[in-house]
Amino acid sequence: MKKTVQFILEIQKILDKKTWIKVKLFYLAVLLSAIFEPIVLVLYKNLLNMLSNQVAFASTIFWVVFGYEFVQLLSGFSMLLIGHEKLKLEYTLNNILIKAVHNKLNRICEEEFEKENTYNLLERVKESFVNSVLSIIDGLIGGATQIIQCVGCVLIVTRINLYLGLAMILANIPYIIVNIVYNIKEYKIKQKCSLKKRQVSYYEEQLQYRRNAKDIRLFNATPYMLNRIENLKTDITKEYVMLYNKEVWLKSATTILKFVVTGLCIILCIKPTYYGTANCGDIVVLITASLNLENKIFELFENYYLIMNCGFIIEDWYSFSELPEEKEIKSNDTIENYSITFRNVSFKYPGTNRYALQGVNLHIKQGEKIVIIGENGSGKTTFINLLLGCFSSYTGNILIDGKEICNVYDEIRRNCSVVFQDFLKLQLSIKDNIFLEQSSLFEEKQIEEQVYFIGNLKNGINTVLGQLEEGGIELSGGEWQLIAILRAMVKTNKKIIVMDEPTSYLDSKKEDWFYTTLLEIPKDMTVIIVSHRLSVAKLCDRIVLFKKGRIETMGTHEELIENSEEYKRMYFSQKDMYDINS
Hints:
By secondary structure, the chain is an alpha/beta fold. It is 62% helix and 10% strand. It has a six-stranded mixed sheet, with helices on both faces. Strands 2-1-4-5 form a four-stranded antiparallel sheet, with helices on one face.
């Protein structure tokens, strides 16, 4: 419970002041409404005693009835108002908490996304966190409400029969213990099945993606995918069924015990009335209060069970919130010369013993155009990721203008533009895909001219892409890639452009457009291109050949043709497809 309270205080930090005040006022109103039930019972008891004994004046009975009905009205109205406000509050909290999760995701170190445990943790947080926070708050307030109502019922019951209340409380304890034990076991199964649930989600998503529809149909992959999903779900279900088979017997036994004790208690209540030794109103309200007490005790521990169940999510949240974040280093140093130096840099991906890069030494002058080539897995993309600050657990030095890159990340990212292999595809308008609400040196008219390669644009660059909105159009891979290139080109203040396989989807005509654009880039802007296509090599100042995580050789096209057998082999293997000399 202590950890739960600490967690609520952590959530308070996420919420803005206005929302937190709303939360406190809402749940204060809920707590105040809890006193209505005991008051109603007391008024009901007095009314029955007056009527059965026929000793009260009509005016007294009238005011008791009026008070009874007035409190009932207040109770009903407050519950209606609370229900309405709860929906609005949950909507607000839901938006704030989801935003907090996404902000955290945006700050997590890239290395963490190379670990399987991180994805399992994210799956559990994504699935349960927001609902669990709302459930914890409801459980805490619900528990407090039920304690108030239990105290009221106990005061009523103990005035007539102290032992009755104790018997009903004790009858619930075995049931509560069973729930607590199996709740812990259920969470352990949930942890155990995280990977399989993530795999199920992955296969289901692949079946739903429109881009996969052709492959899935042509290769008749649906039965295979469905079989994988069924096998995984069967394994998950077996784990839960084994647990529930044991749980149902113990819960049944403890429930029977609880109802037997309750039945005996009711019989003991009725007996004094039968012999005329107790007031009718006292006995009716005693039975009602006793049953209410039992229900409230049950609900109280159900709330405890709910909070405890969500408590495991609290542990996941703490694990999630403690995932290492990128360091926010705001240096006062200004970068005047965007020269790049890799000095004896080595890097291994988390969880592997193999070097993705080893002993890399390279100096790139500002304004130089570099093409990085090599076979798959040679370290080209890893080199780019380190340059962009995606990973920090390298050895050696990566310097910009003589300054360690980890100390000027914010400066680099402000002044660096990039086209990744897996570039961003947003189902928004062409304009939003390119500008992302940033200011740009390009006028919209100029961008309109650049996207001539896409036909039938009824709304020009305001045309929506994808199927998220009605009237959206689908683009080819090459058209999407050109949009990614334009996005990189329009970024303001850029000093470095990094492109990872920027022509992989382009046809020859669009590739010519790219080369023309490349030649128009200002002379003081550094360009680093990763490519398997050597057609771009002659347009660059230097070629760097990677092999098995190391730099094999570097130089101009002419120098490498003369001095590097590896480059010569790669060049002539593509010569028939690309007439570079033309």
